[in-house]
Amino acid sequence: MSAPPQTRRICTSIEIQMNTYRIAVIAGDGIGQEVIPAGIEIITAAAVQHGFRCEFTEFPWGSEFYLRTGRMLDTDAVDQLMKFDAIYLGAIGDPRVPDHVTARELILPLRQRLRQYVNLRPMRLLPGITSPLAGRTAADIDMVCVRENSEGEYCGIGGRLHSGTPDELAQQTGIFTRRGIERIARYGFALARTRPRKLVASATKSNALQHAMVMWDEVVAEVAAEFPDVTCRKYHVDAIAARMITHPQTLDVILASNLFGDILTDIGSAISGSLGVGPSGNINPDRTTPSMFEPIHGSAPDIAGQGVANPIAAIWAGAMMLDHLGERAAHDAILRAIERVIGDERVKTPDLGGRATTAEMTTAVRARLQPQAA
Ligand code: IPM
Ligand code: MG
User: Fold this and answer.
1) Domain span holding position 111
2) For the residues 308-325, what does the mean pLDDT come to?
């Protein structure tokens, strides 16, 4: 039986008003192919509940593509991606392709060329997960790393000379700009201002790196002065690495350069109980280009294809993407669903000490997304 004309008209007008987001999907390698469909399932379910739509367009880029074409990305990949509102990335890495090829030809150029200068990484111990740090509970580990994502030690400038001879040399330059430090610091302080403890810990190494890191400290101190309500402390990166283990409860927002942030966020994920949980946003706060959201974990070739990868990091990254797109309520609903699944401890993938599959974990999150679920 067809609906009466009036009802149909009402539906049409609702559809026209509904926000639609165009999402580019690069599932990539290994378990990226398993966790990204899980994330899409949850994002789609949340979109239905919150009255918006996501249109997903898949790109085949990654290591298989490289083995076929000699390239990790299409030559015009950046132009293609510019047409999207956001990018949802799985994992990149394959034992058949050198790591510096997969990183330097896919993920790093996208971060740099799309001016995603913030790498935002929440590191929380969720209730229901056991930290490898004895006696630590969720109240002790709740930090977020604001990592500079476009320059610094990862700028890619350098070269090699006299390759394969005893005179061989390699140069790897770090580039730090006042503009680059200022904008990442401002983002970190503005974020700290929204958090209850309002603390920034700046990771430096100005005792040894007397040019770049002394300038880092100076610029961070200048930005700190704009945020008198936020407390800022600086720690040398080796000391903050130790502090994350010994006193994680004293850390809130961690502000770090590209390489320091990379290292500190692996510590943060590890003390949060599993690499399978932590998400990551590569964000251009100026919104002139699409931002890119990904799980922190890699492609995990050892478990790829078995259907047992933990989808939580990818689902959480998807929630961060929705938050960035302006769908805060959908983000919060997904986070609550994740917390409920982890908290009741019945469904756990092997990385969390259980036997659940990716599909079972995804179904559990989806079930708790229902408004009536407790
Ligand atoms: C990460 C990864 C990347 C990085 C690699 C793959 C280049 O470790 O996202 O943390 O170092 O940024
Ligand atoms: Mg890393």
Assistant:
1) 19-116+276-374
2) 98
